[in-house]
Amino acid sequence: MNDDGRLADLAEQCASLRAEIRHVEKVLEEMAAALSTREAEARELHRQNAEMRNLISDDHAERAARRYTRHELVTKWEELARELAFSSASYSEKALLKQRLVHLWQLADRAMGIAK
User: Fold this and answer.
1) Which of 25, 72, 104, 111 has its CA 20 to 30 A from that of 53?
2) DSSP state of 86
């Protein structure tokens, strides 16, 4: 093949590569736009979940305030704390107990505030 033929081949390959690059850039832009939309949706869902958790927590605190005295809630907390301290439960079971302890303490704290 002569030099002109090789140059023509290279020019054709370059044009093909440029077209492929433009296509990939377009696909990447579309993916970035879709990702941005999904991130916005995820942020909105996270916000809604936080709102629901707060509503549920407020509702639990109100029910706890009506159902238990602060002393009863603290007693339940102490029972859970003892169970956790002397438990031979697995790490994940202890983590669940710790979550329950924190939640119960928050309920006692909120119930006391609501009962005032």
Assistant:
1) 72
2) T
